C-alpha cells in the first residue's frame, strides 16, 4: 500500500501570511527568508524517516502585489523503499527495514499573490495566490521528477484588536511523474494569531489536504508558532508541528528568520 505525505506548503505559506498580514504597501520592498526544520515520521513504514530541511525564499512586494520564489536544501534518512514527491516521502514497494541517506536541493515554487482592497476598511483582508512548482531538484535528493504542479488559493484575514483569525481554501493540480499519477486535491487551513504585550505574536494553524492516491491518506497537521520582531527589519519565528495521519509528520520543529527591506 502506498503512503503519500504531501508537502506542507499550505501551512507554511499561511504561517508567513499571518505573521506579516496586513501588509499592503505602495512602496517596493524586498523580503528574504531563511529557515531550518527537523521532522520525523513513520508514514506507514516500520522504520521512521528523519528529514532536515533548510528552506529559503526571496520575494518582491509592490502596490499590493507579491512575487516570491522559494526552494530548500534537504537531507533525509529514510527506508530504502521510499522515493520523494515534492520533497516528501512516498513508498514504492512494501515496507523495508534498510535505510538510505540522500541530500540535495529540492524543487522550486514560484508564487504570485495579490492583496485585494475589498473589506480593508472593516478589518477584512483578502489575498489571492497562484503558484507553480518547477522540477529543479538535484538528482542526489531522490525526489521524483514530475510535471509542474499548479495551485490557486484564497486567504482571508480578519483584524479584531490583538486577534487575527484566518481561513484559507485552495485547489492544486498535481503533475504526473514516471509511473505516478496523483489526484488533484483541495487544501484548506484555519488559524488565528494573537499579539502579545511585547509585540511578539502567538498563533496556531490547522492544515488539511485531500489524499493524493486511492490508497493514501489525507494530510492532517497542526502547527503552533511564536513570532518576534528583532527590530523593524528582522523577524524570528519558531514553531512546532504534529500530524494525525500516515501522510503527516509525527512531530517537527523549526524556525524562520525573515528580513524586510527598510522603507525608503
How would you sum up this structure in a few lines?
The chain is mainly β and 264 residues long. The protein has one helix at residues 9-20; strands at 29-41, 49-62, 65-79, 82-85, 88-91, 99-105, 108-116, 124-134, 149-158, 163-173, 185-195, 201-209, 219-229, 234-243, 251-260. Mean pLDDT is 85; it is low at 1-10.
Can you tell me about this structure?
It is a single chain. With 264 residues, the protein is mainly beta. The protein has one domain (9-260): Autotransporter beta-domain (Lipocalin), CATH 2.40.128.130. It is built from one helix and 15 strands. The protein has one helix spanning 9-20; strands at residues 29-41, 49-62, 65-79, 82-85, 88-91, 99-105, 108-116, 124-134, 149-158, 163-173, 185-195, 201-209, 219-229, 234-243, 251-260. The chain has a twelve-stranded antiparallel β-barrel. A two-stranded antiparallel sheet has the order 4-5. The longest helix is centred in the first third of the chain and has 12 residues, at 9-20. The radius of gyration is 18 Å and the shape is globular. The termini are far apart. Residues 1-10 have low confidence and may be disordered.
CATH class bucket? Mainly Beta
CATH topology: Lipocalin
The largest pleated sheet is described as: 12 strands, antiparallel, barrel
Instruction: Tally the structural domains.
Output: 1
CATH superfamily: Autotransporter beta-domain
Number of strands: 15
Report, as a whole number of angstroms, the end-to-end distance.
Answer: 56 Å
Task: Report the order of strands and helices.
Answer: HEEEEEEEEEEEEEEE
How much is the average pLDDT? Answer: 85
State the helicity in percent bands: under 10%
Total of helices = 1
Structural class: mainly beta
Question: Can you tell me the overall shape?
Answer: globular
The largest sheet has its strands arranged as 1-2-3-7-8-9-10-11-12-13-14-15
